[in-house]
Design goal:
Elements (H helix, E strand, L loop, with lengths): L2 H20 L35 E3 L1 H7 L17 H16 L7 E6 L6 H21 L7 E7 L8 H7 L2 E5 L2
Parallel strand pairs: 1-4, 2-3
Antiparallel strand pairs: 2-4
Amino acid sequence: MTISKAFGASVCGAVAGLALVACGGSKPPVSTPTASATPASTGPSTQSSTGPSSASNVSISDEIRTKCGIPDADAYFTFDSSHLTTHDRTPLDLVVKCFTSGPLAGHSVKLVGRADPRGESDYNITLGQSRADAVGVYLDTRGMSKGKTLTTSRGAMDATGADENGWQRDRRVDVMLGD
């Protein structure tokens, strides 16, 4: 292949990719746990000193926290992101321990992905699912039985935020007892 053909193909691919993004046809990124769990964001930074920089992306139900002895933690994702952060590991590791060898051993867990209301409905459902799937993959890699993890999305259906502080609370994965 000549250089001009390779360049032309790469330009065409880039143009096609931009057209997809511009038309909203792109799918939100699906996160997989990595050694560096630094969130990637395609939107503006919205973290404040009292905001999600010290919070987890998961919101564990009162029932699970009580039965497993897990401390309370809020849950926020960066705008347009489904990447887990380093703050997610501790509560999720405690969930795995509780569901594999603790008081909830043998039970299933339900993960409900959520989004803030600023995107289109279909996009928010997909983004919420990506967030729930990212948490599910992390739990599976830590020893949680795949058959004991159910993921779903509510998108922005239950979102209550009207400004950035509220939207931050809308971007999360709820971890609940599945059975």
